[in-house]
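Below is how a single chain appears once it has passed through the pipeline. First comes the sequence as given, then the structure the pipeline wrote out for it. We keep one example in the README because the format questions we get most often are answered faster by looking than by reading.
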Amino acid sequence: MPSPSAPVSAERLAALQAAERERFLAEHPRSRVLAERSAAHYLFGVPLHWMRDWPNPVTLFVRSAHGAELTCADGHGYADFCLGDTGAMFGHSPAPVARAIAEQAAHGLTCMLPTEAAAGVGERLAQCFGLPFWQLALSASDANRFVLRWARAVTGRPQLLVFDGCYHGAVDDTLVDRDPATGSTVRRPSVLGAVHDHPDFTRVIPFNDLTALERALADGQVAALLAEPALTNFGLVPPEPGFWPAAQALCRRYGTLLVLDETHTLSSGVGGHARAHGLAPDVWVAGKAVAGGVPCALYGVTADLAARMQAVKQAAPEGHSGIGTTLTANALAMAALDAALQHLHTPASYAAMNRVADALEAGLTERLRARALPWTVTRLGARLELQFMPETPRNADDVRRHAQPALEASLHLFLLNRGVLLTPFHGMMLCSPATSPAHVDRLLNAFDDWLAALGL
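Resulting structure:
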């Protein structure tokens, strides 16, 4: 057996990946046919080009999804630890949400008016997430865009501050990078069609760096710090102890609004990471999973900020504010959100999620220790990541230094061929209330086989 501290050879990885690609093609003839048909009508062969962000040689087409399992077009079943990249965090088609959608569909889908359920939903939002005033959107991208307009309007400040490696959806202001040599904000090369010079209005600093945070805020030009409580899309990078209370205090000192985007960290506990850890943001944002997977997002604000928002809107001329879309808070989304708040955002849901996450974390950690592998399992609530580095990263630069995309791609395809689906980037895994010990065992057994195939 090779030394487990030594990297797996590129040749061995390439040979294993080639064999797994052939296996996938042989076992998925129906997906191959659907991919060929779709290529004639969809750019890149899929309705959204992100659907090709997987290491399999052709797209996996889905027949059905229930609980924590998928069935593909070829009839193979998968234990799903991707869960729609958090959209299905409570499981696919949770029964209370499915019933609410079916019932509402018979009574209207969209009216551009509030439904009778709206008052109760507002009360439940305040109770669950701890902020008194709310607005809805169709996606977290929309919600973040709208929040940034509000933040700049009420503060009169032009600048946005984000952390290096953050992800806040398709919000142009946040699709920028930090130059590690100079610390300056630069254009992200992969972003298509950018015409505005967002680096002029967005500042980027390292995560977990309070000195850099104070330096960025000190001139009084930053309207808002828009942040995930933990980086989740650039590898899982949790906050260091004491970071967020200190960061919150700095925002207050310099008059900068603190906006926490919990689209991914909602899995931390009932009410999200902020509620679980006693944080008090000015604005709280969530999408994807908040209504059980139906397109819906929301943002809540403090009473003080709500008064400022209403004042600035009333002082503006009549006309389009640039905030909102016609389908926002449609009847179908409101019905799903109402059901989710009553039946999914509960201590029982999170207890079930955490039980299986405990087992998965223990199983992965045991295997790494038994082989003395210099890898890490990082945990945040029901979300885990297997990281090919000796310790949990502190910031995005730590992730960059240890990046092993070929190893990640090998893990993903190998597990997929054995009935386990991971999120298509990094080694991210999410547990739902429907995830069972049997699903965890399937993942751990496939992981054992992968390690053996690598000679570890």
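The two ends are 7 Å apart (CA to CA).

See the next section for the split statistics.
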